[in-house]
């Protein structure tokens, strides 16, 4: 952070690097933004939040010159500035790094950084000067690759650094990052955070867009919230809380956010897992799951929660253990066996492991029923169409028609599409791994409603989640894993309260658990 700004100051004393005032944008007479304001100071990470459709992307496209506002004013360092196209935005020191990276993989880092703005010496390109300049920027970012590296050989996180370096080379003062960690591992994400903090400390203003609350808590100095195309308000770092954010983003309190009412009297045992293990990381685990119960499976990243789910579902081979469903021992050697028995599984990575991205929404919803709905060896498309249309209505999946590809839907609609597919088989047990990862708060609320409705109908649900508020808000009972072992159970009805403190006691190895 620059010396002029105190990190948590409520009212910075310096001139804002960016002021957007009265920004209004309409498309075909429909208002996408109405009188929106945004103020950004140098040397701060400013999170821009709001659910899908709130207007974040439209506002940032106006800032980046992709759109021109119908009304309003933009000031850079207090000076009114006309931004009419991307070139004028870059000239004003504004660069936007999109979620989908914009690099030429067959060129070097230097060539990518100077593309369209090459340095020359006489009639020839001044390659040494460009390479030297590029290397200096890379060194300032702490990059582990050099300016001569072919970009296509770099990891996604490193390609992202190339885009950041290109912006810095252009003397960017305002850097917009749109869902920058979507394709990054945990280690790559932490390295990106280090880069962001370094940029902030050098006085660069960063507008950070993300649906991941933990990232906002880790990085943001201030937060501004949009809802339905309108500016709702801003919070300083010390004012940020889940309760206030939810209230601002969806217009209702945290108490009303989680749809589930905790059950005190569980139904019959429908799933019993006995000493299941992979012979390595996962130690023998045993538990029961009741009809109509939401059983939360908590623990730190790497604790083994996903691995247990995959062993039950037959996605990974188990070395030992048994799975019983309604008193009958199952022989599960593959996901097909689990599906035939009435067990569904929504994986944490919906794009790589869940959806058929290039297929239509209709086929994604109906694919698990193709076999049972087939007539004489032919697909009964009438049945598939009926199921898909009903699912779209029941789950409020927003799409123009059933032929829209899964890849073209938002994250929240993709997740609801995946839920709809599994519910089409009417599962007895449904396992959900990170069911709201990467979706906005509005979609989260809808997914919680779907989960609660399923439990009310008697479906037994095993829910894996890294979000403690989600585990606490949605679970009837919680199991906690640590280092591949089930180490604790929390259940309000037996005197072990489901709280963040108690979950973390078990997850980190502390022994004291409050009643």
Automatic annotation (TrEMBL):
PROSITE patterns linked to this entry: ABC_TRANSPORTER_1 (PS00211), ABC_TRANSPORTER_2 (PS50893)
Matching Pfam families: ABC_tran
Keyword Oxidoreductase set for record: no
Listed InterPro entries: AAA+_ATPase, ABC_carbohydrate_import_ATPase, ABC_transporter-like_ATP-bd, ABC_transporter-like_CS, P-loop_NTPase
Chain ranges of the ABC transporter domain: 18-253, 261-508
Superkingdom, taxonomy of origin: Bacteria
Subcellular location: Cell membrane
Gene Ontology annotations for the cellular component aspect, listed alphabetically: plasma membrane
GO molecular function, a single term: ATP hydrolysis activity
Major localization listed first in the record, in broad terms: membrane
Keyword tags: ATP-binding, Cell membrane, Membrane, Nucleotide-binding, Repeat, Sugar transport, Translocase, Transport
Membrane topology annotation: Peripheral membrane protein
Entry protein name: Sugar ABC transporter ATP-binding protein
Organism in which the protein naturally occurs: Waterburya agarophytonicola KI4
